[in-house]
Amino acid sequence: MEELIKPESIQVLVADESHERYVDTILTTIEEAAKVRGTGIAKRTHEYVANKMFEAKAVIALAKMPDGTERFAGFSYIETWGNKQYVTTSGLIVHPDFRGLGIAKKIKDLTFSLARTRWPHAKIFSLTSGKAVMKMNTQLGYLPVTFDDLTDDEAFWKGCEGCVNVGVLRERNRKFCICTAMLFDPEEHLPAKIPQEVIARIERLEGRAAHSQELRD
Ligand SMILES: CC(C)(COP(=O)(O)OP(=O)(O)OC[C@H]1O[C@@H](n2cnc3c(N)ncnc32)[C@H](O)[C@@H]1OP(=O)(O)O)[C@@H](O)C(=O)NCCC(=O)NCCS
User: Fold this and answer.
1) pLDDT single digits (tens) 164-209
2) How far lies 163's CA from each of 128, 159, 169, 180, 202, in Å?
3) How many Å lie between the centroid of ligand 1 and the Cα of residue 197?
4) Atom 10 in ligand 1: which residue has the minimum CA distance?
5) CA-closest residue to ligand 1 atom 43
6) Distance, CA 101 to ligand 1 centroid (Å)?
7) Which pick of 13, 43, 100, 150 has the fewest CB atoms within 10 Å?
8) Which residues contact ligand 1 via a Cβ below 6 A?
9) What is the pLDDT of residue 43?
10) What confidence category does residue 2 fall into, taking pLDDT thresholds of 50, 70 and 90?
11) How far lies 24's CA from each of 27, 93, 160, in Å?
12) Residue 91 half-sphere exposure toward CB, CA atoms < 13 A
């Protein structure tokens, strides 16, 4: 078996326009991984993923190789649903050459922090059959929930159309499927609920309202 060349270092960062050159590699890597797992995926176009990079809603991992070249190592992006009341960190992929190095965990931590910063009141959920993802979700404070607790945004559920198990989902009226639903509810992570008018007052006092709105759009 061919021995893998170890990277010198791995950088995990919020992607921008300069990373568009990796989009096609990302899409191919996601597609090939889905074939290996025998599952479906929410298919995304080059333009869709590139836009995530332009909007600072994507995280990329890049490997610096001993010969000085840079290689794509991993990726994930953020999607908002139901008028930004729900958020998902989607499309998590680590290139097979760089697995088992803790890259997925670093990507997940950064997309999660980015989502929490931009939409602090949104519920973050995950619909997955992946053991590694369930483990990372649990470490971040997601809890298993029923499908009723997820968004009813049709655009989200359309993503399941590409999955081999979509028939099961349809038969059960979206109440059950092969995947496990997990949810991080920001309100449950605070000992007391702060009324919206108090939050608005704090934002006014700190002159943050305009700025934070900008970040959330
Ligand atoms: C799943 C995937 C993203 C993991 O990437 P990775 O960089 O190798 O993962 P990490 O090294 O960061 O490991 C993160 C955690 O998951 C665990 N893990 C990783 N791969 C695992 C596997 N195949 N089975 C069970 N646990 C696994 C690790 O032990 C680690 O847990 P720890 O922090 O408690 O030790 C990668 O294998 C992949 O891209 N797979 C194909 C696509 C996919 O399945 N995406 C998820 C869609 S739901």
Assistant:
1) 899 999 999 999 999 999 999 998 887 788 788 888 888 888 886 5
2) 11, 8, 10, 14, 44
3) 41
4) 102
5) 93
6) 9
7) 100
8) 33, 37, 92-94, 99-105, 128, 130-133, 135-136
9) 82
10) low
11) 5, 13, 22
12) 26
Pocket test for ligand 1, best of 29, 93, 139 (most atoms within 8 A of CB): 93
Nearest C-alpha neighbor of 12 from the set 147, 134, 104: 104
- Report in angstroms the alpha-carbon separations of 204 from 14, 126, 190, 208, 210: 29, 33, 22, 6, 9
In angstroms, rounded to a whole number, what is the distance separating the alpha carbons of residues 122 and 84?
Answer: 7
Q: Is 67 exposed, middle or buried (0-12, 13-18, 19+ CB in 10 A)?
A: exposed
37: pLDDT confidence band, cut at 50, 70 and 90?
A: confident
- From atom 18 of ligand 1, which residue's Cα is the shortest distance away? 132
Cα(207)–Cα(212) distance, integer angstroms: 9
Cα distance between residue 36 and residue 41, in whole Å: 12
Strand 70-81 relative to strand 123-128, pairing: unpaired
Domain with CATH 3.40.630.30 in the chain: 9-184
CA of 181 to the centre of ligand 1 (A): 18
Domain 9-184 CATH (choose: 3.40.50.2000, 3.40.630.30, 3.40.50.720, 3.90.850.10): 3.40.630.30
